[in-house]
Amino acid sequence: MAELTAAWTSPDRAAALPAAVALPLLACGAVLLLRHRSIAREAASVAFGLALAGVVLALWPVADRGLRFELWTWLPGLPLEFALEPLGLLFASVAAVLWPVTTVYAAGYLRAAREPALDRFFAFFALTIASAMWIALSANLVTLLIGYELMTLATWPLVAHHGDAQARRGARTYVVVLLATSIGLLLPAIVWTWALADTTDFRPDGILAGQAGSGVLTLLFALYLFGIGKAALMPVHRWLPAAMVAPAPVSALLHAVAVVKAGVFTVLKVTVYVFGLDTLRETGAAEPMTWVAAFTLIAAAIVAIRSDDLKRRLAYSTVSQLAYIVLAATLAHQVAAAGGALHMVTHAVGKITLFLCAGAIAVTAGKTRVSELDGLGRAMPWTFAAFLTASVSIIGLPPTGGTWSKWLMLLGSAEADQVVPLVVLLAGSLLAVAYLMPIAVRAFLRPPADLPTHGEAPLVMTGPLTLTALGCVALFFGADAVLEPLAGTLELP
Amino acid sequence: MTGQLPVLQVAVPLLCAPLCVLLRSRFVAWLLFLAASLTSLTCAVWLAERVDRTGALRYAMGDWQAPYGIEFVVNGFNTPVLLLVSLSAVVAAVYSRRSVAAELDDRRVPLLYACLCLALAGLLGLSITGDVFNAFVFLEISSLSTYTMIAMGRRRQALLASFRYLVIGTIGATFLLIGIGLAYAVTGTLNMADLAQRLTGSHDNRALQAAVVFVFVGLAVKMAVFPLHAWLPAAYGEAPSAVSTFVAATGTKVAIYVFCRFAFTVFGASLVFGAMPVDRIGLLLACLGILAGSAAACFQDDLRYVLAWSSVAQVGYIVAGVSLATTAGVSGAYLHMIMHSVTKAALFAIAGVLLLRLGSVRLADLAGLGRRMPWTFAAFVVAGLGLVGVPPTAGFASKWALVTALVERDQWPVLVAMLAGSLLALVYVGRVIEVAWFREPPDGADPLRPPASMVAAIWFLVLLSLYFGIDASLPAHLADAAAAALLGKGGG
Amino acid sequence: MIASHYVYWTFFALMLIGLYVVISHGNLLKKLIGLSLFQVGVFLFYIGLGKQDGGSAPIISDDVETYSHPLPQVLILTAIVVGVATLAVGLALAVRIFEAYGTVEEDEVLERDSTERLAERDRERAAEHDGGGS
Predict the structure, then answer these.
(1) Distance linking the first and last C-alpha atoms of chain A
(2) CA distances to A76, B140, B223, B249, B379 from B342, in Å
(3) Which residues does chain B have within 8 Å of residue A72's beta carbon, measured at their own beta carbons?
């Protein structure tokens, strides 16, 4: 037994790391075995989800011990390897904790919406989580890229789930944009990095320091940021609104749990562990991308305000909020980067709540447009209370977790003497007020257009969304605990 | 006994060919081909293991010592090719039983197996021989049997495809013959190692330079290097499925190996890539081939033609790697050779299954395939993404190696062409997937069940490609050994 | 220089004539004739390489001092076999093309294929149209 525990978290062959990737894979297998047995299938998914959450959360005390696990050598000099570090653990925790929550919700939603092919849905859902774990725990760029592409492919059938013409179009845009950016830009960027640094490992101070001039680094950084299409920087954001055709749990998965988080996680990881914040600051290589991120932040927020379709509005809100994280990364400042990492968590919890609410509204009330929501708050108080809480968190007001992440990002840009980003960050929050608050306000304060013929959504749906809304509040009080392992890596004051 | 392995590998399929014709039984012929390919594979594995342990093996034919007799040489540079050819033959054998029975008249079946045996013998002989004239003979053995097999295609278009291949292929082979003759005129020897030795330092010799040109133009036809690729699309597109599976996996690859062998171990890199601009020409043609082949593949409306044009593009990738003339480049080229032949064989095999069950592989007829044959379609998606080079498929590992080699030599334009080719591959693979997955199947279309033996062959290849994608160490080891043997101390 | 190597020039001329015939003629049989001419040119070139001035055929005899080099002749013996096989396959193909299309002119064969394809497409369109209309 003692040996087993030792192997579980031994520094150079920590079995916990491959186990975290294997658990969702096993869940995928279990779903396929339990085909057509609906309750058993979902129970298995949730059980594996809880087990995964347990495994990942149990890693928190050993987050900074540098656990590693080498799978095998992929090509000479390029091992496929897992390593545990605080940023990755943060992402892994988000994905692992939100997976069972989304699964419970999905079980309720998909039945209520009479969606077909649930076996396929849960199997690919588990596969997506497996790829998210793989990405979170990757020890080098090559390993990460494999997980990154696997995730694109695993989510493809989910986006196209409905199978009608619109779903196909959306899924096509989704796959083409993500694959084209990663093959056309990210792959050459990684190879170039390898040629420059002779390694693709993630190291705390970066691997590119002193390996190239500032011109090359600027170009390389741009290749990375546009190549990581999942971070949805304009103009490669098109896939996100296109993917809105998917069922609500999938949107939640895309926006909160796995896909876009994999994108910004990769951005942060590349910024911190490949370039190194010091190198970026000294060479100014990240500066042009700051402008791109700032533009995306504002432009997407404006599009969000002008969208009447609820899911489309939330999608553009995601594009805008992701730009926050990218902007924080490009500031090349420790505090801002920590803010970005924290925003990855708070936005995940907030946005998943919003999407779960949107799904609950769509199946219960049959409403998908913002202008139709007048007075719905009275019929669905829990749903809209959760929606309001999450909106506040996304905007960044107390008492929700979003407060701290936005605060840290603002602080970081002030400390880095970057005035324009500071203004942009503030303006983005104001715009967020403009596109999120009217929704809850309409629902609670406007008189209903017609007499509601329905009540609150079923418990399997309101339960998860209440839980995640509470999570938004909990993060307000627990932000320090979340940031603690990061403090060492980022040398926070 | 083990000393005779190099010759057994070639002799067994060569002897099986007339037996197929004489016995005239479909089943026996198939069994003979299967036995021949299994024997070859066993020999190849054994030889590869021996070479890996102890270095190059030489076999003097009839105990006539080189340089007077014909010599067979097994070394790092040809073990991957031997393995590839014999493994493809085994897979093609398993696959062909049902496929050939469905596509050909009964009386032609034994003849097809005879041709397959001959083609196998020719390709193996071409890969193993250490004598330039012998290489020409084996090239013609494999080519003639391939022309014949292509002509057995189901549609009458196959006849003209075969005839055109015959004409241009013969011109190519004859060019090779002229080149060999010129080299012989300069040196008076036909043994590759001996040639290499006598040629060192004679870079200014006109006749020798002419020999290089003739040999490479001749081989370029067989490799289907742009712009000498015109024969390939129709030939692969019209041949019987089992034949295109086997030939697409091996034909051009062996020609590329012969190209490497001549360039590095006969004429020598300093002559070919230093004194003569073969590297620059190679890179240019590779880029054009990648772009033209991929673009043409996007406009085909027959699945097999899509795959065939994609082969033209993939040859470009390999040629680009070889033309770099660096260890990394040649190793990447070998890796891509291995990965691509596994992937492309799987795709042609899938096309064969579709042809069998749907009666046509025109894109319009694939509508709703995802629902009618979900597993076959899944195999297509995996193999198709391998062409694009999406991780974790086999194509990614080799593309990685090639891109690394290009970056090392600062060949940015070629890199751009290669990535553009990948994106175009996404388009042509995506077109097929879209029709198959998303278009409604025709009314009353039932799920279809392909024959088990064909499915086994397909999934063996697909899983092999996935395995090579996530753990490329075995093919990478073979490729590195090949590059070392070619670029290191001759070894010819 | 040119005069002394006139045999090579003759052989190269033969090759070029053969190659020209292959390229310029659409008739499949004429193509094969050109191909044979081209190959024969190469065979003669090899034989020429082995010829010694005043050398005799390489059959050992007491009366002969110098022999021609036997190796090219042996090689060409093999190459001739290959050439004959190629010609045989080519002619067989030409016969089958004639059976299938009723012509051995390349452009006519292509024309028949393309009219067939067009007819097929028209039929499909018509079928689609009917399906949509009814």
Answers:
(1) 40
(2) 21, 24, 17, 7, 13
(3) 471, 473
Q: Helix, strand or coil for residue A79?
A: strand
CB contact under 8 A, B438 and A176: no
Where residue B201 falls (left for φ over 0; alpha for ψ -120 to 50; beta otherwise) is: left
CA A76 to chain B, closest CA, distance in angstroms equals 7
ipTM for the predicted complex = 0.90
CB contact under 8 A, B390 and A149: yes
Mutate to test the interface with B, among A81, A183, A199, A223 (most CBs of B within 10 A): A183
Token representation of residue A63: 């987050």
Burial class (CB in 10 A: 0-12, 13-18, 19+), A368: middle
Residue A146 contacts residue A78 (beta carbons within 8 Å): no
In our burial notation (b when 16+ CB lie closer than 10 A, e otherwise), range A44-77 reads: bbbebbbbbbebbeebeebbbeebbbebebbbee
CA-nearest of A92, A126, A90, A132 to A106 is A126
Domains of chain C from N-terminus onward: 6-102 (1.10.287.3510)
Pairwise CB contact (< 8 Å): B404 & A72: no
Q: What is the pLDDT along chain A (493 residues), one digit of tens a residue?
A: 566 666 777 777 788 888 888 899 998 888 888 877 778 888 888 899 999 999 888 888 887 777 888 888 887 778 888 988 888 998 999 899 888 888 888 888 887 777 777 788 888 889 999 999 999 999 999 899 999 999 998 888 888 887 777 888 888 888 889 988 998 899 889 988 988 888 888 888 888 888 888 888 899 999 999 999 888 888 888 888 888 878 888 888 776 678 888 999 999 999 988 988 888 888 888 888 889 999 999 999 999 999 888 888 888 999 999 999 999 888 888 888 889 999 999 999 998 899 888 888 888 888 888 888 888 888 888 888 999 999 999 998 888 888 889 999 999 888 888 888 889 999 999 999 998 888 888 888 888 777 667 777 778 888 888 888 999 888 888 888 888 877 777 666 5
- With CA atoms as reference, the chain C residue closest to B68 would be C71
Give all chains having 3 or more CB-to-CB distances under 8 Å with chain B: A, C
User: Do C109 and B181 lie within an 8 Å CB cutoff?
Assistant: no
Number of neighbouring beta carbons within 10 Å of residue B423: 15
CA atoms within 13 A on the CB side of C7: 12
